[in-house]
Amino acid sequence: MTLHDTNYIPQLSIDCVVFGYSEGKLKVLVAKIKSMEATWTLPGGFVRQTEDLVQAAHRITLERTGITTPFLDQFGAFGAADRINVALLDKMTTQWLALGEEPMAEADFRAWFSKRFVSLGFYALVDIQQVNLQAGPFDESVDWYPVDQLPHLIMDHAAMVAGALATLREHLDRKLIAFELLPETFTMRSLQEVYEAVYDRPFARNNFQKKMLDLGVLERLDKVYSGAAHKAPFLYRFKE
Amino acid sequence: MTLHDTNYIPQLSIDCVVFGYSEGKLKVLVAKIKSMEATWTLPGGFVRQTEDLVQAAHRITLERTGITTPFLDQFGAFGAADRINVALLDKMTTQWLALGEEPMAEADFRAWFSKRFVSLGFYALVDIQQVNLQAGPFDESVDWYPVDQLPHLIMDHAAMVAGALATLREHLDRKLIAFELLPETFTMRSLQEVYEAVYDRPFARNNFQKKMLDLGVLERLDKVYSGAAHKAPFLYRFKE
Fold first, then answer.
1. A121-136 confidence digits (pLDDT tens)
2. Which chain B residues are within 8 Å of A78, Cβ to Cβ?
3. Which of A122, A202, A226, B114 is 20 to 30 Å from the Cα of B217, by its Cα?
């Protein structure tokens, strides 16, 4: 990764709130920052001069998840004049330089991180079972955390998660994207659990099923036989 | 206006879709570009290094409208790698330089406009009766156009208007912002006409009135006496 401004747009970053669903919880992908104690961040990166914004967001998500075609949408630009914690970034660049992995001259590297970045927020929805976690260049590790039990995130990244979640709640019905968090086939109960995890409230089972079926976007497949036949649930698939 | 990158964030712009309502139409503020034939643009500008994004959007809107506190919200970032029409911008900078008004060195001025700008879209809602139109530094003039009868806008500005209108339609009810397009007091009929202009479809009068009153956000004031007393409509005000 080189950061010369002939390669990347200066003072502009992208941060991705990658949502996954497992164990009844809506989860967010969070990276622990390399060489820093107790400092976590959303997966982020910069925009190449030759790249569309959405291509950059895809690349940043792909680097950490291995997912080539996640559902991806914007949820806002974050650009408060004081959003950058200068002291924190200075400490981070010093630590990274000590690792000896950055090919740039120290002065250029420090200069790159010394100014405010306006960050464009994208959220991604992935089938968590398809993800192969992979740390980014400045990540010590990357892991899933329940959205209501995140570690301490740097700068305004917690506000970004809140913004992404608010947008996801607005979009879930209108854009019919809950299916993006599930495997290709799923039971009605799994779908309801995704809604309950996203909105953090229970849904009435009969109403929920009727509403989903009335949308006309679900294809009913075979039953899942794992116990008594009369209790076996149907599998569904989202009609593209 | 100087454009040295010590003052402004490079490769980042803000374009504002300023909506107003008059004569039964939803209107958008559009500037004719100075020294160019038949070239129109949304009011835009750059972000000062010391400025929050939302402050920059306020400044850009204020410069053209005189309105200090419009309703303002983001509707998306536009950053396709090929979004800049290089030939058009080159022609524009040549024309502007010929005017002799730009204090920057020609090479710096050309360099500033030669790269892609990622543009952050903000939309504003104003009471059109309160607006004092004022051309920006590169505007020949600035005028209101019905949203469905816009002149030919440069680059992706027509897509920006479409994006802003889609966001306005999503927000109108949820954020209760229709009142921002009206004077402080208004009749139920005016409010309905704003909804009809934004959504471009008729609303049933009784249903509309019931829905608005049920929201519990309207304060009923005196009647407007202009003809027969029994036909005089009530005035309403939005409870802050």
1. 999 999 999 999 999 8
2. 53
3. A202
